[in-house]
Structures are given as structure tokens and as C-alpha cells.
Specification:
With 279 residues, the protein is of the alpha/beta class. The chain has a single domain, classed as Aldolase class I (TIM Barrel, Alpha-Beta Barrel). Helix content is 38%, strand content 15%. The strands form two sheets. Strands 3-4-5-6-7-8-9-10 form an eight-stranded parallel beta barrel, surrounded by six helices. A two-stranded antiparallel sheet has the order 1-2. Strand 3, helix 2 and strand 4 form a beta-alpha-beta unit. Helix 2 packs parallel to helix 10, helix 5 crosses helix 6 and helix 9 packs parallel to helix 10. The protein is globular, with a radius of gyration of 17 Å.
Amino acid sequence: MNALAEKVSRMLVSKENHPQITEVRVKGCVIGGEQLIVIAGPCAIETEELLKETAFKVRGAGADMLRGGAFKPRTSPYSFQGLGVVGLETLARVGEAMNMPVITEVMDSDDIPAVAEYADILQVGARNMHNFSLLKKLGRTNKPVLLKRGMAATVEEWLLAAEYILAGGNSQVVLCERGSRSAEKWTRNTLDLSAVALAKELTHLPVIVDPSHGTGVRSLVMPMAKAAIAAGADGIIIEVHPHPEKALSDGDQSLTPRQFSILMREIEPVAKAMGRRIR
């Protein structure tokens, strides 16, 4: 056993302490079970009409959950920051109408009650993986948490961030690999699929992959989604927009609904080869 594995073995996230694989249940969906879970939707909630259109199309193609950002952490303070509470209300209405659980990011610990009121899963973005005050408070909630790996975080740091949530009493944690910052200039990030296999080996928590942020390039999302499933991921989270060229956030990495439909068909045999199923 190497030093990292030995250290993890003493943690709540460890398979040694919790041999049974955790299944996170959200309104009929099970993350970590036999079924591969697909989460899809726009990066940011722009209008209710656009979100409805997107949800209708991804649901028809086979998506299980709807994603959409109401609070958007942007590098530039002048970029679109999201619709806030109005966006949360919109996401909840559309999710209910489409019978889809919804996931959105919580950026500030003060926003946890509002986001938890409307969302079924609370997402911790890469920039907040080291926000320990936020993680501690999420540990005291009864809502599932999707924890994205920080853009320069090691696997150990990622698992320790999850440990904060579990130590607070919330065992409903899903890990999400979304790419690391590297010297590569052709892609937004470098998608680390070895981290997926390693996390699955070390922990009992479900692991999903975000190939949209992991690459930042629309044409790479589909092949990396398939690779993620082959690496053992329990699900994927994909950005989809009816008109990516007009998207207010992350249009370059968003699939069109037609491309998403193709992706759903193409991942089915990969999932089957891995002993998993779609829907």
C-alpha cells in the first residue's frame, strides 16, 4: 500500500472503512448503481423558454437529470453572472415539468438554504473545492452534494475536501472530475481519467466526469465522454445548448441537442461493455 492509499484508508471516504459502495439516490435516480447517470443542460440558465427547450430535448434523448447555473462564478467580473434566485425558481419549475431532478452550483455558504430549497443536488464548483467553510456547512445539510475537483487539486486534496462533507454528517457525496489546469493550450483543461479510476479504487463514493469543462472543445466532448465511461465513471455531466454560438456562457464546449442525441446512442455500447446500462 502506497502512502496515499494508507492515508486514505483511515478516512471516511475510504473503501476500507466503508466496503459497500455508496449509492446516492435522487428522486428515483441512483448515482453509483448499475445505471449510468447522464446529467445535461445549459451552462447558465438564460431564459425559461430556452431552458424548457433544452430540457425537453435532452430528456427525449435519454438524460436523467437537468443541470443549469443560476449563480455563475466567472473569471471576469463583467461576464454574465447568472440570474440568481430567479434562475433557481426557473430551474425548479422546468425540472418539475419534465420530471427531472435538478442540479445547480452553490457558491456561498449563505446561499445554501436558497439553493437547497430549489435544487435536488448542490454542486460545489472547482473554484470552491477549497472553500472549507462552504464544505463544512454542506456537511450539515440533507441534500446530495456534487463535488468537482479543483482545477489544480491533487486526488488527495479532492478526497480530503469530500471528507469535510462526510465528517459533517452528510454521506451523500458524488465526486466529479472536470479536468486540471496544465501547460496545454489547445484545450481548456486536461481531463484526468486516471483520477477517475484511482478514486473508484480508493473510495466508496460515486464518481462522474465532466468532459465539457474537461476539454472546453465541443468536438472533444463526445470521445472523452465515452472514454470516461470506459474508465469506470458512474455518470457524465454534459453542457447542452440549442444555440451554442449565442450562449451567454461556455458556448464553445456546449453540444447541440442533436449532438447530444448522437452521444447518447454512442455511449450505450460502451456502457454495456462496462456492465452498465443507460436508462
